[in-house]
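Bumping my old thread because nobody answered last time. Still need a sequence for this structure:
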């Protein structure tokens, strides 16, 4: 498996920490499509769109944004980051992503998760007491839909399906379905037992935060009869590629700290991120991918070696970072970092092939 580098966004709508002004949801939606287009132009492998159902995010309908991105791009893979499957209907999820797959000639991916934010559960009439069982049951149905048509299926929390014709089908043979995990060892074991690709996320903390979860995932996969070497593993981390180490940190910190305070909460209280804590995360042992192109290249290679990764996704920017600064960082990631990583690994760019090529 060729190593892949991508970016993701939650589409935050955030006040600027200096001026206090806030870009409109219209601006943030258009900036999101521009972000995907630039990532595609500079040769990155994956663009991910998060899902949140609050007014401080623009991504309550990420599949619509991904469909728009499909029309604005040519080669980049288009993924959810993540689809909150527990509060979604798996039939509708499949229909939407299969449509994106048709529009993009086979570039759609589903990263299914339980959801670290829970506002969608009461919004769509789900009981948080069923949080874990909802995900297990709906993932089972989504995999069944991917594997066969028509579909007959019975569960406890959703009405049964009997010879249901679920369309459209994928552009090619299938649509990749990953499981997004926030670090829970039990979730990693469950994913390995199913033999599904694993997508981990580190919001803050040391670089090796999920090492135990990865080991448990691979052990569970092997015990279930899968070859761990064939299972893709991804990790997403916050980051920014600057013209220098100082410029990168000084540019990322204000918007990222505002993100942690404004958005990283459930009931009105965010998390303070002092500059010294941010700088610790940007250190060689920390999880943030922030620095000049050489620093970021070296850290990606260390992440890959530590976890045996096949993909790394950078949460680039936030709602308060100026778009010009964000796009400059994406360009550096695609034109300087990614080629250096591929050269170190003896690989060529995956975007050298047109969609549909073998």
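Sorry it took so long. Here it is:
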């Amino acid at each position: 498996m060729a190593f892949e580098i991508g970016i993701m966004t939650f589409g935050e709508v955030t006040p600027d920490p200096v001026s206090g002004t806030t870009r409109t949801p219209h601006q943030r939606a258009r900036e999101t499509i521009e972000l995907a287009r630039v990532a595609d132009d500079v040769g990155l492998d994956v663009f991910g769109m998060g899902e949140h159902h609050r007014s401080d995010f623009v991504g309550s309908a990420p599949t619509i944004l991904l469909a728009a991105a499909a029309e604005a791009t040519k080669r980049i893979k288009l993924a959810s980051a993540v689809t909150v499957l527990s509060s979604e209907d798996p039939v509708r999820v499949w229909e939407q992503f299969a449509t994106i797959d048709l529009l993009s000639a086979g570039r759609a991916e589903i990263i299914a998760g339980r959801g670290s934010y829970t506002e969608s559960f009461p919004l769509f009439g789900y009981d948080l007491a069923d949080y874990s069982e909802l995900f297990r049951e709906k993932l089972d149905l989504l995999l069944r839909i991917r594997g066969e048509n028509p579909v007959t299926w019975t569960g406890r929390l959703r009405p049964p399906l009997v010879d249901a014709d679920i369309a459209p089908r994928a552009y090619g043979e299938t649509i990749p379905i990953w499981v997004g995990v926030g670090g829970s060892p039990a979730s990693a074991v469950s994913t390995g037992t199913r033999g599904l690709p694993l997508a981990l996320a580190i919001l803050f903390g040391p670089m090796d935060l999920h090492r135990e979860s990865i080991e448990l995932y691979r052990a569970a996969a092997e015990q279930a009869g899968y070859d761990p070497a064939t299972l893709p593993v991804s990790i997403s981390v916050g980051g920014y590629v600057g013209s220098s180490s100082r410029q990168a940190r000084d540019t990322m910190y204000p918007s990222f700290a505002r993100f942690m305070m404004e958005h990283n909460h459930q009931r009105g209280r965010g998390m303070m991120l002092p500059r010294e804590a941010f700088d610790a995360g940007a250190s060689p042992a920390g999880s943030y991918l922030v620095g000049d192109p050489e620093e970021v290249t070296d850290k990606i290679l260390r992440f890959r070696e530590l976890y045996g990764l096949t993909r790394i996704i950078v949460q680039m920017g936030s709602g308060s970072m100026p778009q010009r600064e964000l796009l400059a960082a994406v360009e550096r990631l695609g034109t300087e970092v990614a080629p250096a990583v591929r050269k170190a690994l003896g690989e060529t760019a995956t975007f050298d092939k047109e969609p549909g090529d073998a």
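The first helix runs from residue 25 to 41. Let me know if any region looks off to you.
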